Every structure is written in C-alpha cells, then in structure tokens.
Amino acid sequence: MTIQILAIILSITIFALVLELVRREKLTFKYAFSWLFFAAVGLFCSIFKGFLFMVSRWCGFELPSNFIFFGLLCAFVFLSLLMTVFLCQQNSRNDRMAQALGLLELEMKKIRERLDGL
After folding, report:
1. Does 1 score more than 80 pLDDT?
2. What one-character DSSP code corresponds to residue 49?
C-alpha cells in the first residue's frame, strides 16, 4: 500500500467519521465544518500530489513533507483558536444565564414574601 492510498483512506475516514458524528448529533456543524474542510483539503492533496509539490515549491519549501508539517501546525493553531473563541462565547452565555436565573430567583422570593404577607 502506497502512502498516497493511505492518505486517501485516512482523509475519507476522517470525513466520514465527522459526518457520522454530526448525523448522531454528537457534534454540531459549527464545530464540524473546520474538520470537514481540512479532511477535504487532505483528500485533494492526496489525490493530486503534483499540486502539493507545486504549492510547497511556491511557498519556498524544499520538501513537500516540510510543507505538510507546517500546514498541519497552522491547522492545529487555527482549530485551537476557533475552539477558544467558541469556549469564550459559551462562557458569556453561561454568565448571562446565571444572571437571569439569579434575577428570577429574586423575583420569586419577593412574590413569596408578598404572598406570605397576605
């Protein structure tokens, strides 16, 4: 089995796994989109390896393997940044929800006090 076939199989497997996780609602499309994008890029570069050589030369890399490692590093940094943004958004939503819950509890307490006074 050549490395090209292995890369194609791996890209298709990742693509199928992410689609299955979205189908089972274990992963939302918002989070899955970047994984699907990188799996598609991996599949494209696996099939058209001449394109990978051309782009790596154009970017100034002597070996395509160095370009692949650099690309993977950039992809992981991008995914980490994306996950950090999503985490910050979730924290903000949790803070707003906790504040709204606190206000509702305060209102309920005031209503109970008024009802007990009657």
Report:
1. no
2. H
